[in-house]
Amino acid sequence: MEVVNTLGRRKKAIARIYVKDGDGKIVINKRDYKEYFPTAILHYVVEQPLQLTESMGKYNIMVNLTGGGFTGQAEALRLAISRALIKVDPEFRPVLKEKGLLRRDPRMVERKKPGQPKARKKFQFSKR
Fold first, then answer.
1. Which CATH class is domain 4-98?
2. What is the chain's pLDDT, residue by residue, as a tens digit (128 residues)?
3. Are strands 4-10 and 13-21 parallel, antiparallel or unpaired?
4. Is the CB of residue 99 less than 8 Å from the CB of residue 92?
C-alpha cells in the first residue's frame, strides 16, 4: 500500500495525516498521541474510527496538527482518519457513515459584535 494522505477540519483546527501500513503508531507533531492529548476521552475520539473498522494496529499514522484547542484537534484528526480509511478500503464507508464520522462539523465560534461584551450577551439595561 502506498501512502494515503487526507485532511480533517473542526473549528480552527486542521489535521493533515499520512497513513501507511505498519504496527499502529499514531505520531502527532513528532509526539505520540497519548502524550499529545491529555485525557482518555480524547484518546478514545482519535481511536474511534480505527476501532469501528477493526483496524487498530494495522496502520502507522503521521499527523500535522495546527490551530484550535485539544478537542477541536482531536475531532479534526478523527475526521481525517475516517477519510483515510475509506481511501484504503471503500467497504469501511457504511460503518463510519452510520456513526456520523464522515460529516465535517460546520459549527464555528460566532464573532463578537461591537457595543456588546460578547457575541450575544448585552450590557445590563438601566432604565434610569
1. alpha beta
2. 789 999 999 999 999 999 999 898 999 999 999 999 989 999 999 999 999 999 888 999 999 999 999 999 999 999 999 999 999 999 999 999 999 999 999 999 999 999 999 999 999 999 98
3. antiparallel
4. no
C-alpha cell at 11: 473549528
Residue for cell digits 460546520?
106
Rounded CA separation 77/17 (Å): 8
Task: Give the neighbor-by-neighbor strand order of the sheet with 59-66.
Answer: 4-10, 13-21, 59-66, 26-28, 31-32
CA–CA gap between residue 125 and residue 72 (Å, rounded): 35
Residue the block writes with cell 432604565: 127
Q: What is the SS3 assignment for 112?
A: coil
> Could you state, in order of their start, the residue ranges of all structural domains in the chain?
4-98
Q: State the pTM of this model.
A: 0.90
